[in-house]
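Section 3.1: Structural characterization of target chains.
Under the original work plan, the team committed to producing a structural model for every single-chain target entering the pipeline before any wet-lab resources were allocated. The record below documents one such target. The sequence was received from the expression subgroup and is listed exactly as submitted; it comprises 272 residues.
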Amino acid sequence: MALAIAVAVALITLVSAYVFWAHIWWLPVSISTHGAAVDHQFKLTLLICGVIFVLAQLGLAYVVLKYRDRRDNRPVVYSHGNNRLEVTWTLAAAIVFTGLNLMGYRVWANMHFTGAAPGALQVEVQGQQFAYYFRYPGADAQFGPIHLDKVDDATGNFFGLDREHDARAKDDIVTATLGVPVNREIELILRAKDVGHSFYVRELRLQQDMLPGLAVPVHFTVTDEALKHNGGRYEIVCTQLCGLGHYKMRAFLQVMTQEDFDKWLQAQASGQ
């Protein structure tokens, strides 16, 4: 029985390692300028943790086999641990994972704390049960104020705009699709209307929670690579359980050339 357990543990370990090594069920194509850094961090973390996992599991298989019951009536030997070894591997683990955290923090903070460059395209994103809506500023490059008393899903006034009295709100453009041009920085201002949601596009390597009462800014730039796949269309999904309809909460990111984006935005504006 011990031999069977040891072999099973070793096989499961090696097969699991091969699945990742051969890139089976691997990451989709990256379409953002920060995607390469995120992928590098992911692969480095996976490599380090993978090596530790394989060594630990093969060590487990070895121990199971070596200390199996040989039915020769030998006395049982107990181990009371080794404080020096325990301190050593605890410190090593702390150093490795603190280092990985600091490296990953630099990439993450670049999207959240540095702020978008001047001239970035601003888009407000609102998550609500169970849909996303996107608001673009018009020709004045300013968002109109939000009036909570005017928010009305029945009339499609998802952002509570008063177009009749607010000059800045008259040319705001509200869409159900997030259209963006390539090679231009995009700044999203994420809001949640009711409960916690999230904004996740796996190809962008971007995931951010959205909470009621908070305006969370993130920024990214889409590369030409996005136009080569799926017709430039990518799924946006909510990864926070937000109610019974959570499974159907999604929208789409449509990547276009700057010329096509300008035409698309003009077409959206004419339908407001």
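The radius of gyration is 26 Å.
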